[in-house]
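Thread title: Can someone regenerate the structure for this chain?

I was given the following input by a collaborator and told the matching structure tokens would be attached. They weren't. Posting the sequence so someone can regenerate them.
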Amino acid sequence: MFNNINGIQLATKDNALVSNQWQKLLSAQEVSQDTIDTLNAKRTTLSIGNAKVELLEQLGSGPIANFLTKNPRGGLFSVGLSTVDLKEFAISLDTKNISYTAEKGQIYIDQTFTSEGGLRMNVSTFEKNDIRGLLNRFFEVSYLVSNPEAISSELATQLRLNQASFDLTESTEFGFTGFHTYINESCNDDIEVIHPLNETNAMGRFFNNRGAGLYMCFAESSNMNEIRSRANEILPGGWIGSMEENIIPETAFLHPKLLGGVMVGVKGK
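Best answer:
Regenerated them for you:
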């Protein structure tokens, strides 16, 4: 059904400020500005890797304003997915009586899509893009829920995903368990549906305070040393990972303060 994760949407208090953060840290390129009536928001679109980051600043009451009321520092609002045939995808949603809104070449699915809520998606037509900036691509978003098995099964049914391909994922270090819910047959992109097991760590506190919802995203990069250097210069402690310049870590994390409220995991490529 889907080709890849082709971007993320962030709710912001100030698009210009967050745009500058993405440009300064990751060499993202600002490509357009417009408005999205569905979300009652101003949109600034950035190109990074082979994907887009859409920054959404409220124009008035609506989904972005509601999100910012609960998350005043902004953060990860929605995951972008691509499909070859957007019309066929819309028909599949109609067949299952799944509500959506279509605007400017995107289909918006709100957080009532799953029984636990908190997962917003926007779907657009697949485009093969050149890589720009210091990231290569986004490949995963983490979705925190109470019952990962049930929600993964829901996503498989509603989105026509191959549940047999889903992998168990768990971590004693970060304290979670759940499933890699792959959105394509290549198993290169997924919605990581997980439940925090430790109420005292960052993930557990996030879930206790906000309930089910998108927690963070992951990207690949061939420029780990450059990102580390820039992150440490911009915000001491902003790079969470190996500090050895001659060591390229398998994975590191960028503090949410660096990128408009979203934590980005970066995997070396």
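DSSP finds six helices and 16 strands in the chain.
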